[in-house]
Amino acid sequence: MKLLQDMKMEDMNLKVEIDVDGDGRVRTMLWVTGKNRQDYFHFGDVVTFDTTYKTNLYNMPFALFVGVNNHFQSVIFGGALMREETEAAFNWLFKTFVALMNDKHPVTILTDQALAMKGAIESALPNTKHRWCKWHVLRDVKGNIGHVYNKSSGFKKEFNKLVNDVTCVDEFESKWLSLVNRFNVSDNEYMVRLYDKRAMWAKPYFKGIFCAGMTSTQRSESANHMLKQYIPRSSPMHVFVRQYNKFLGSRMSDEAREFHLNANKSRTYESTYPIEDDAASIYTRSVLLKFQDELYKCGSYVVTPVVHGAQYMVSVAPSKVKDATKRKWRNVKIDDDGQFINCNCGMFDHVGMLCRHALKV
Known about the structure:
- The chain is an alpha+beta fold.
- 44% of the residues lie in helices and 19% in strands.
- It folds into 3 domains: 1-132 and 216-258, Nucleotidyltransferase, domain 5 (2-Layer Sandwich); 135-206; 274-360, no CATH class.
- Strand 4 (62-68) and strand 5 (74-82) form a beta hairpin.
- The radius of gyration is 23 Å and the shape is globular.
- The protein starts with a helix and ends with a helix.
């Protein structure tokens, strides 16, 4: 508590909330710095939440609220030490976190498959869209279907492709059915549950949901990995908090470095398109690289008008695929007298950036 008071003197916007049980013992402790709160104000539309880190003397799970900034770097919104991972504990944590963030609810929250979290999110964040992270789904499949997941069977490669590449509902449904039947896992309890809950994790069902490009809690996982470099095993509480602050300091240094590069390093152009010049004047260096990749790849596509000025079909050029019959077509519509372009691949809704199909049109 002395350490937290000292931190408060240095950061007047630091907020600490502690939930205690009937005997006065700490049940959950949440703290957010002034920088955490500022970052959440700008970038808190999408939050990944994870509780896998347990490197402290009391073996208490450490929960991290993580997001992504305009340089596409991981940013920390807050941290909490929890004594128990129950629905009541998560409910208190989510409600308290939002209260500390001036009642701004995230648009989307990505978590693991814990049932206790689901109930708490429905109660504390009723208007927030809740989805599972892909990282946990892929990790848990291996443990639940055993030898079928080994490299030689081909299941892993096909399953990963289904999870990462398929964006059409009909295509997902047919490929899932084909996959589970060919590898004899259609009756596997875990695979049945996964299919029943596909709207929580499968890409085709994410299309209208803004995730800032984060369809997994890998950002929480990578933040957990970085924490291990700062916090020794079995740390007492005050050491844990002090080292966590050093970790936050390292994140701020990384952000400052990228901010400096963004302000001082000249942009490299990949084309002569005016739209790239416009993007370079708006996007940060890191986001521009992602946009340039889409712009470059749109060169491999061809456009077929359906209704001139209103609707187009877009696909990879026949010369770019081995089997022309397997070409995927995207439907691109122009709305509001040319002010808005919408592609059924869903990238703009999902990431906030124009896709290669829309750019081609």
